[in-house]
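>> received
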Amino acid sequence: MVLRCIKCGKEYSENEVRYTCNCGGLLEVKLDIERIKNEIDISQYKKHPPTVWKYSQFLPVKRRVSLQEGGTPLYFTDNLAKYIGLKNLFIKHEGMNPTGSFKDRGMTVGVSKAIELGINKVACASTGNTSASMAAYAAKAQLDAFVIIPSGKIALGKLAQAIIYGAKVIPIKGNFDQSLELVSELCKRKEIYLLNSVNPFRLEGQKTIAFEIWDQLGDVPDQVILPVGNAGNISAIWKGFKEFYDAGIIDKLPKMIGVQALGANPIVRYFKSKEINFEPVEKPETSATAIRIGNPVNWPKAVRAIKESSGTIIDVTDNEIRDAQTLIANKEGIFVEPASAAPIAGLIKLINDDFIKYDETIVAIATGHGLKDPNFVLDSISVPKAVPPNINELLKTIGL
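>> returned
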């Protein structure tokens, strides 16, 4: 196993603390798939329920700091599918992880790697979910944790989590991209392990979403659609499918579809510009705080995943996200945070554009629980007024 640059191909030791190549390119973990292929027993996989560590042969750490992450439900959303015009639509609800988001998959591996490296301090920049997850796993491992957040740009539910888990939370007068620059510099100057998704070990945990989809579905879907913020997750899931393919576990691959918010859509703009130059969105704005990122560090990996899989990426408005969140809740009884509703908003657009076919099997990734950001809902509704405590008033109010 080595760390390999996706730009120039240079390799580094897995035990060297670095996040990018000397050429500036992003690093990824390259496993010895042939060795894994000879060691795994697929029949044993089917005997155990899915969890992140069920697939430990595909994970690049031996230590294990765990909160029993993974094994999130894959819902067959038949009501929603019928409403929007699909036959087989599933939602993989990552909000059912220990801290309420998919970030737990990456943090169990990232914090475990920090322990292996002998580092007792960790840090991240965050729009919310990353901070909550890192703080929880740092607490479990009894590491010092530092969180840099954009002031006033983080959902209170996520902020409360980071604080209660014991992390040192520092708001800055800037956006997420500035927060990431600052925490990266901090980790360079001090012996602190950076746990944003630029860390390739973080993404190794997140790729297990792909493994679980295959495990629970019993097959590979035609398309996987998910929200894109810092762009690590789409590349991680694609990497997971490719590793299972290379190991001979699956014989086909899905298309990867990314969805960004209209006010934070630099990767969409990159494709629309015919890939001439990648230009960050200087002042990203969207109510879907989890994907309010204008300069996603993993954009080259995301672009590669989309192109290699013959997928696509689109953007949706905040109103479309709000409508999709309500639709998921009303049709399926599933409450997801705003960013997690973006894939359904995007799916509706793609159906109208004939990119998605009626009988294809689609898996949408809901990356976080709705309770992470209840204000998104509360800000758009009127709280019901109290009525007198008698049956006639009750019947009148409910219209019966």
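>> The first helix runs from residue 33 to 39.
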